[in-house]
Amino acid sequence: MIHVVKKDIPRTRDTIIIRLLAILGALLVASIIVIFAGANPINLYIGIIEGCFGNLHRFAATIQKMVPLLVLSLGVMVAFKMKFWNIGAEGQFLMGAVGAALVVRFFPNLPMPVMIFSMGALAFVFGAIWLLIPAFFKAKFGTNETLFTLMMNYIALNLVVALQYDFWKDPGANGMPKIANFPANALLPHIGGFNLSIAFAIILVILVYFLMNYSKIGFEITVLGESENTARYIGINITKTIITAALISGGLCGLVGMFQTAGISGALSIEITGGLGFTAIIVAWLSGLKVPFIVLNSFAFAVLLQGGSYIQTAFQIPGSVAEMIQAIILFFILGSEFALHYRFVSDKKKREVA
Amino acid sequence: MDSVRCFYSKGENMNTQYVVNMKNITKVFGKVKALDHVEFSLKKGEIHAILGENGAGKSSLMNVLNGIYVPDEGEIEVKGQTVTISSPKDALDLGIGMLPQHYKLVDVFSALENVAAGSRKTTPFLNRKKILDEMGKLISQLGMDIDPNKKVYAMSVAEKQSLEIFKVLYRGADILILDEPTAVLTPQEIKNLFQIIRKMVAVGCSVIIITHKLDEVMEISDRITIMRKGTTIQTVDKKDTNPEELAGMMVGDVMELNIPWVDVERGEKSLEVKDLTAIDKNKVAVLDHVSFDLYAGEILGVAGIAGSGQKELCEGIAGLYPIKSGEIIFDNTNIVGKNPEDISKMGISLSFVPEDRLGMGLVSSMDIIDNVLLKDYKNKKGMGISRVISRRKALALVEKLNVSTPGIENHAVSLLSGGNIQKVLLGREIELQPKLMLTAYATRGLDVRSSQIIYDLLNNEKKKMIPILYIGEDLDVLMSLCDRIVVLCEGKVTGIIDPRKTTKEAIGLMMSGVMEEGKKA
Fold first, then answer.
1. Is B193 in the same domain as B311?
2. For the whole prediction, is pTM greater than 0.80?
3. Full domain range(s) for residue B121
4. Rounded to a whole number, what is the distance in Å from the CA of B252 to chain A's nearest CA?
5. Which residue pairs from B394-402 have beta carbons closer than 8 angstroms and sit at least 24 positions apart in sequence?
6. Are B168 and B297 in the same domain?
7. Contacts A–B by Cβ distance under 8 A
8. Mutation for testing the B interface, residue in A219, A230, A244 having most B CBs under 10 Å
9. How many domains does chain B have?
10. Which residue, B7, B75, B419, B488, is the most exposed by fewest CB within 10 angstroms?
């Protein structure tokens, strides 16, 4: 019989080799699909690279795809550090967007800097509230945050549906169910394809890095996540820590709602998230909840997203094929996690060890 | 009707007097000899108690008989035949059933459903009526108090235990192993359990009961086997012995230890515990009107069988366990109801080395610096943390206590050996320059050398006039290290004694619930 045995902590060198092998394997398997779709895999893979870095415009698109994923992953990470499984980033993102749109709707004539600041502030608050609700119930009554945050996603989504199809429907859109576009003073300023959200993202990366590594609250979040008993033992106020972490986590995710509406879509709609709130969970987890790796992995995911959309037009292959390639690569990388942490041992050998 | 084999087995061919005969049983785990050429035999129809301290090998021996451990050496005879038992299922086929220490019942099932589940006689469809009939018969024979339709979640601990016993019998066991069955019961429930055990024997079962309570042994058993440090000391008939003799055999001769008792003129009273009472979630009193004083420059030992309230006592004083009533007075302030944050804000610097080192005292995935930081970070003003001081302290700690570690940074403490983990924890707590030290099982699992270092550290603190509460399990150590010893049994103080004026046997008796002379029961 073959048994699965947990390995010691993998070495960095092994990690890199296994990850590279996984990507190589993924590309090989994906090639089969590409050939069936009638394209040359080598050209296609080169196409992905070109689509991401071919010119400044494409590079800007890659970076813009990275920004929301990066900030969402940071938000998710803060909660995950506490072993508070916030899988409601999608909902917090949407609520943040609602918050930003609320400012635009009720104060459309604010000067641009004030407008952007207010939109960001309200987006942060709305996202934070969306996570504070489950966090409050977890701290006070011990409810399960996984289900709670997941359900909050659907409430947020359907709230936006109601806004888009009914309450905030644009009468000037010839019956199309859409919310009116933001005026120019509510759009993030940009240079070329790069808008201001990139600057915000850089600041947030630095802030979150210092928060988690060099602040009391970050330290307390980590300790609480590792062991609640230790947290009680050293006198951490557990309720306060849960609430603070939820505020930061939800707030960061909410802020992305402003980045996307004011920076990319120019309006609130149900499509703005593109499932990034869930992808962020994968990014945060793959990065081992470490800020530098989150930056790296968000970039890698952005390359997949941007490269995928580029090859659709450049190679005339269906969007589903591009998505399949993304999925295969992801599948292999997640699968390689297993190879990193476990190994197979035959029964006979195991006895000798024991 | 083989389901109730044990009640009808008298007619079976059972000429052998012994139903179980274990010879020369040896079981080694790594370097530890859990069982060292152990002999054990069980007569048909007897109640046989196995008596011993924690870690004496009682449970290991029974796990061998129940097929959970396969012995490295030795022979087992059951009902006259040499057998190999390699799983609990094998054991049950031979009629041996062991009551699990942690009950394995399905909460949302009724008693009947729990009995039926996993029983090999169960047909694909549940024949409630047939099982109900069989159950009724057994229940009335044994005088048990089981309602077949009551759901497990609605049952008391005693009811769950009865149900577990019943399950084992229903599955055909006639040799029953009970591992510390009275630990979770109230005195009245213990009385009921003993009645059930006697009735089981009356209908032909043989019972092995593991315990360390002398009074129970004297009440229920026919024969007693005493175990110590993995060996059988002796098997005696109850009628030929007395509790004093048993206690003596259980604890063994006084060993010469190299722990110098430091003679320090004790200072003022520093901690006063008055009538401290705490209850656990099963409403059992884990601390029952505990009172004692602790003086500066004194190591006050706490002796007792594991689970007699030591953990709750420490955590209660540290503000981590809810106290129902009573007072904990430190420096003229009652600290009952205060949490650790409150206590430290009151300026009481308290060192606490908890029993659960990696689960409470330290964060296992963090390195030594961050683990030192745990108790330091609040001292810094502002929102940030600084590792400068902690790094210096960690380095000093590693050097002073000779912690063997690849580094103080980026190397999780869980990767260190047990002794080194404890050095980190104890070293950190001593560095706090506490006004009061609580240590729980400070040397558990440590080798002689590491233990020696820990004792020296504690003696040093004592010389600095720090009051120290030392929870221990090794009586030899407690007696040579401590100035006085509080003996706990089931949450009650059964004696506060000077170890230099008493015997190990006397402490052993108090640990088993016999009150100190001159004290009211």
1. no
2. no
3. 2-251
4. 33
5. B394/B368, B394/B369, B396/B431, B397/B368, B397/B372, B397/B423, B397/B424, B397/B427, B397/B428, B397/B431, B398/B368, B400/B427, B401/B426, B401/B427, B401/B453, B401/B457, B402/B453
6. no
7. 59
8. A230
9. 2
10. B75
